Amino acid sequence: MKIPKIYFGTQKKTMEKTVIDREKEEFKEAHWVLKNANSKQFYEFIFDLAMFPNIKIKSIGNLEETGLVFENNTLSGTPVTSNVYHLDIQFFHIHDEGSMEIKPIQLFVNANPKDLWKNIPSAQDAEFPKQDETSYKGNFLDKKIVVVSKRGRSHAHEGKFRDDDFAVNELSSSWSIVSVSDGAGSAKAAREGARLAVNSVNMFFSATDILREIEKNVRIIYDTEYPRDRKDEAGQNIVKYLYESVTEVYYTLEKAAAEHSLSINDLHTTLIFTLARKFEFGYVILSFGVGDCPINLISKDFSEVQLLNSMDVGEFSGGTRFITMKEIFNDQMASRFRITCVEDFSFLSLMTDGIYDPKFVTENKLEDIDSWKLFFNDLSGNNDDRAKVDFLSDAEIDKQLLTWADFWSRGNHDDRTLAIIY
């Protein structure tokens, strides 16, 4: 008996439908776990359909409240609120596009740890008021500078003041100076000590006659016609002026303490600064540091980095040195000053430990160029917040750097100050 052709056609269609239904059911039953998201942090999850080549995801339902979007098999965006979201994967089989199916999944969005910290404004009617955050952008020599200083979460949580400070000045005779300080959290007037330290050292170098003398001695050092002993003498002359500048800071703080019936220890603060000028033979950078805040110079081709100050870590770990300590003005003080000359550079950075601790962790990484490449990669937007600092189109660079400085780092909640010359 001859079987009609229509029978074979019906049988083939039945078999195809069986295969399609099986593949759709296998996709439905597959155990898919979306990685957890964190509120207010960028999230991305790519659906890997390699095991299901005939399945296509059309859309995902119930995304409206999540803050996420679905496109090209990718779920991405920045969720705003922590919650458990019940989503529906809407999919179809490529050989049965008219039949849409639903696969339910869950997305867990964890609370952003930043939200667990209060941000109580500091009392601006108190003694020695200070803004909770501030920024600056402008020129520095023939380059540019951006500086931000942001109150740490530990202070914000209790409504306390920012203890960090900075000052930037374009001086006469083509010199520029930037100074950064970190007031000791245990000192009750540290915020005022930090402010006075940066402003007094910058004021010292506003004297034109001092800058001219420094310039004269710099030229001797880098002029090949002078003998070694004359160059050594010129270097000592420069260090003498640098020494006088930090001595002036100490006396300024000592005077302020007396005027406000405080101990000078109540004004404990670290201090770093760079005084710089561009000469025809290169950039000369005079630097000083007391405390645990680094100054770093990165070469033009980003191949090497120099630490331009001594760091008070190691022996003094957990008890850093301050400019308010008279004992630092001893025979070892000269080692705190550096005279550096380079033909050019890409970045000159000064930071407090609120940046240094979470981003570099240990002192040795401050002189590791790969660590600095990671740091600038972070600044370029490779971070959880997707916060980007654009050094090329820099119209908003001060705002961008302030946003970046709000990064989360568990256990690191100190004030954060960062100055970058670029």
From TrEMBL:
<protein>
    <submittedName>
        <fullName>Protein phosphatase 2C domain-containing protein</fullName>
    </submittedName>
</protein>
<dbReference type="Pfam" id="PF13672">
    <property type="entry name" value="PP2C_2"/>
</dbReference>
<dbReference type="InterPro" id="IPR036457">
    <property type="entry name" value="PPM-type-like_dom_sf"/>
</dbReference>
<dbReference type="InterPro" id="IPR001932">
    <property type="entry name" value="PPM-type_phosphatase-like_dom"/>
</dbReference>
<feature type="domain" description="PPM-type phosphatase">
    <location>
        <begin position="151"/>
        <end position="386"/>
    </location>
</feature>
